[in-house]
Amino acid sequence: MKQTSTTTSERSTRRVFLQRAAGLAAGATLLTQAPQLVGAQSQTVFGVVGDYGKNNGPEGRVANLIRSWNPDFVATTGDNVYTGVNAQTTEVLQAKVGNFYGQFIDNRTFFPALGNHDWGHPGTPMLACDINGCFGAWNDYFKLPGNGRYYDVRKGNVHLFVLDDYYLEPDGNKVDSKQAQWLRTAAAASDAPWKIVTHHFGGYGSFGQFNAFRWPFEQWGIDAVFSGHHHVYERLKIGNIPYIITGTGGAGLNRGAPWTHPDRKSLHLLRYGALRGKATPTAMTIEMIDADGVILDRVDIVKDGGNPPPAPVPPANPPAGGIPSVNKAGPTTIITSPTPGQRTGKTPLIEGWATAGKGVSHVNLVIRNADTNRYWNETTRALQSKFFLNRVEVKDRGDQVTVWNYRNGGRALPAGNYVARAWTKAMNGDNDPFGNAIVDFNAS
C-alpha cells in the first residue's frame, strides 16, 4: 500500500544517495548537536512499532492503525527491513518502510532503531562501517539526527533516546561503552518530563534475555524502555519502570514462551499491533493496541517529583582468557582456539570456556564466511544466507564453569576467511547474543 500524502518526487528525493564523503562525515559525527526541541504541550502522542518490514498485509494494518492516532512521532524497535542476499537497499527501504510510513519520514518524525536484520544478519546490510565511518542506505534514506545509529530527539513532553545494541556498533553496546556514556550524559542534561529509550534486543523477557544491554536505565533517569526482536508483546517491570517488548508490527508472530519471567506483568501472543503513548507533563499512558483497534494492555505512570538515584559503577569487563571466574551479571563465553587471524585447516577445532551463574545450558555457535557473508550449515555442508546454529559439545552441562568445543564432525569448510561467534545460554534462560566471543580465522 502507498501513502497518498507522499508524492512521487518526494519518494525520489529519499531514494537519491548522498555522496559517500557526505555519508562518511555524517556517520562519524558524534552527537554534539542539540536535540530537536518542541515546547511542552498538553499531550504528546507517539507510536512504537517493531519487527515489521515485510511489505505484507499485517504491516499495512498496523501502519493504518498508527496513522489513525495522528502521532507527533513514530519510533521503532528495529528489524525495519527483512532482506535476502544482494538486495537493492534503497529500494527495499522504500518498499518495506517508505510505502507504509512515508508521511512520517517526509515530516522527519520517524525515528527507527537498528535491528540485526537492518545490520544484515541475516540479509543485506542497510549500513556498513569501516575505519572512516559508517555509510549506506540507512543514513541516506532516513537522514536521522546525529550519527543515525544512536541519537536523541525531543518532541513535546517526550525526549526519545534511540540506541544501537548490536555487536557491530562501532561505539560499543556494553554499559561502559562510549554509547552508554553518551546516553547517561544526555539523559542527565535533559529537562523533558519524560525520557524513553528504544532499541532492539531486550535485556529481560520470557523469550530470551540479552544481558549485555541491561544498562541501569532507571538510575540514568529513563522512564520507560522499549525493545523488539521477539515477535510478541510482553510488559515487564524492572525496578520501578516498564520494559516493554513490542515485535508485532507485521513480520510473523511467536507462539509459546520457553519460560515465564518473574517480572512479567502482561503477555499477548498471536496479535499484530503497536504501542500508543500519551504523555502530559505529569503523566504518561502506554497502550498495546492490536491491528483491529482493541486495547490489550495499558500502563499508567505518574511523576512523583523525586530525583533518580546515582548511577552504579559499571561492571568490569569479562576476563580475556584462561579459566574464567563466573560472571554474576550473566553468561560469558571465551574462545581459546583458534586464535585471532590463525590459519587453520579446513576442519578447524573451535573451543573455549563457558560460564553462567545459574549453570550452563548450551553454547550457540555461528560461523560466517567473511568473503561471502554467508553462514556455514553443518547439515547441508554448504554456506547459506541465513543464520545457522551449529551443534556444540558442552562438557559439563549445568555447571557454572565448563569447556566446550566444535569439531564439525570432521566436515571441511570451503576455503576462505571466517568469523566464529559464540554465546552461552544459562539454565534459567539468560543468554547474550552480542558476540562476547568472536574470532576470525582462515580455513585453508
Q: How many helix segments?
A: 6
CATH topology of the largest domain: Purple Acid Phosphatase, chain A, domain 2
User: What sort of overall outline do the alpha carbons produce when their principal axes are compared?
Assistant: globular
Sheet with the most strands: spatial strand order = 6-7-8-10-12-11-13
Give the averaged pLDDT, no decimals. Answer: 84
What is the rounded Rg? 22 Å
Structural class: alpha/beta
Features:
2 domains; six-stranded mixed β-sheet; 32% strand; 444 residues; globular; alpha/beta; Purple Acid Phosphatase, chain A, domain 2; disordered N terminus; 6 helices; 15% helix; Immunoglobulin-like
Q: Quick summary of this structure?
A:
By secondary structure, this protein is α/β, with parallel strands linked by helices. It has six helices and 27 strands.
Task: Give an overview in words.
The chain has two domains: 8-302, Purple Acid Phosphatase, chain A, domain 2 (4-Layer Sandwich); 332-443, Immunoglobulin-like. By secondary structure, the protein is α/β, with parallel strands linked by helices. 15% of the residues lie in helices and 32% in strands. The strands form six sheets. Strands 6-7-8-10-12-11-13 form a seven-stranded mixed sheet, covered by helices on one side. The chain has a six-stranded mixed sheet with strand order 3-2-1-14-15-16. It starts with 7 loop residues before the first helix and ends with a strand.
What is the strand and helix layout of this fold?
Blueprint: H1 8-15, H2 20-28, E1 44-49, H3 57-68, E2 73-76, H4 89-106, E3 110-111, E4 128-130, E5 133-135, H5 137-142, E6 151-155, E7 158-162, H6 178-189, E8 194-201, E9 209-210, E10 224-228, E11 233-238, E12 241-246, E13 264-268, E14 273-279, E15 283-290, E16 295-302, E17 332-337, E18 342-344, E19 350-355, E20 360-369, E21 374-377, E22 382-384, E23 393-394, E24 401-406, E25 416-426, E26 430-431, E27 437-443
